[in-house]
Design goal:
It comes from Caballeronia ptereochthonis. This protein is α/β, with parallel strands linked by helices. The protein has 12 helices and 16 strands. β2 and β3 form a beta hairpin.
């Protein structure tokens, strides 16, 4: 029998002291502390009554765009969404921005902070073709034994405005993308029905889930949302669609929002929020009460769009808690769930959690409770990803 790894005297989710035995890349058992002794030759890590958590999940980021670890990007872009899109495309082309190098630097930073699974949107562009996808796919391959990465083929300029985008998305889904992205079918493409028809046709052809950026405000966003839900129901894609941002849900009248949330729950469509401060956001408590999955992510991290963001998902959980005024300990635990169990369900990551048979993704921090970990964001004392210890200087 191969030696096991033990994390002893740790407190899963702040509960009673326990010992966790890891066999290879799997949690083999979680036992009351001291009930069973490690065998000779096993590796033993002293949890010292630390808080043991499952590995964190980043539900929405853009690894291909980041300048993480690079010189500071001087942002002088205009205020409109289209200004940011055009500025970024120009900057990436002129600077020769390398998606492989950039994505690897940020992916490693995520791992060191305890994120073991993530979903990243990657630009599919008629200027760059599949170059950004190929760069991020190389990072995914290099880190596949430790980081579970989903790649979303994302048309940053929409699917209809630039001829050839549909064909590139088709190729991306055939060559390594896990999820099909989309962007503002009304506000960007100008024809929400036609845009959504293209998206759902491609997803159905390749058997891929969908994750759509929906920034459209108020009734415009609600109208697009209804068209999307019509297609989910017609094509039987319940549980296969995520709507990221969904700003419209924070700006609708109560009755209109309530009816839409009820339909979202019925079609098992998940919502992703980055909990931004300057715009309306989907209501946290109301969405959860309606049975809607709502999980979290950073969006961009230190790129041509924003100087903000961090690979520390405890920080993102804290920002979610602050944006939604979550102050009680149970509410802070719910904010953590946005970057843990709820994110696993929303993205479809399997074998996730602190239980026997789950993938060995573990984080140990010095905190009494999950709420304290979210509020204080303590340093990671120990990180394990798919059974591999991740040190503070881990590289590949």
């Amino acid at each position: 029998m191969k030696p096991s790894t033990w994390i002893v005297n740790a407190r899963p989710f702040g509960g009673a002291p326990a010992d966790v035995r890891i066999a290879g890349a799997t949690i083999d058992a979680i036992l009351p502390h001291g009930e069973r002794q490690p065998a000779p030759g096993d590796t033993v890590i002293d949890g010292a009554l630390g808080l043991l958590l499952p590995g964190f999940i980043e539900g929405h980021t853009h690894l291909d765009k980041t300048t993480w670890g690079m010189p500071w990007y001087r942002n002088a872009v205009g205020p409109r969404l289209v200004d940011r899109i055009e500025n970024e495309r120009r900057w990436r082309a002129e600077s020769g921005h390398d998606a492989a190098k950039a994505s690897r630097a940020l992916a490693l930073a995520f791992l060191r902070e305890g994120t073991t699974r993530l979903r990243t949107h990657v630009d599919i562009d008629t200027d760059a073709g599949l170059r950004h996808l190929e760069g991020v796919a190389s990072t995914r391959a290099a880190l596949a034994d430790v980081l579970d990465m989903q790649i979303v083929a994302f048309p940053q300029s929409g699917v209809m405005k630039r001829p050839g985008t549909r064909e590139l998305l088709d190729a991306a889904l055939a060559h390594g993308a896990d999820v099909l992205g989309a962007l503002d079918p009304a506000a960007i493409d100008g024809d929400p029905a036609a845009s959504l028809d293209i998206t759902f046709a491609l997803a159905t052809k390749h058997g891929k889930p969908i994750d759509i950026h929906l920034h459209e405000p108020g009734e415009l966003g609600a109208f697009t949302f209804e068209l999307l839900l019509d297609r989910v129901e017609a094509l039987g894609l319940q549980g296969r669609v995520v709507v990221s941002h969904a700003f419209c849900l924070g700006a609708l009248p109560d009755a209109r929002r309530g009816a839409l949330l009820e339909r979202i729950a019925r079609t098992n469509v998940a919502l992703l929020t980055t909990a931004p401060a300057p715009v309306s956001v989907p209501p946290f408590r109301e969405a959860r009460a309606a049975g809607v999955m709502l999980f979290g992510g950073n969006d961009g991290i230190r790129d041509a769009w924003t100087p903000f963001g961090s690979p520390d998902m405890l920080e993102r959980a804290r920002l979610i808690a602050m944006r939604y005024d979550l102050r009680r300990d149970d509410d802070l635990a719910a904010a953590f769930d946005c970057v843990a169990g709820e994110a696993a369900r929303g993205c479809g990551f399997a074998r996730y959690g602190l239980a026997a048979g789950m993938r060995a993704d573990l984080v140990l921090v010095d905190a009494e409770t999950v709420a304290q970990a979210v509020a204080m964001r303590p340093p990671r004392r120990f990180v394990m990803a798919n059974g591999t210890p991740i040190s503070a200087d881990f590289t590949r």
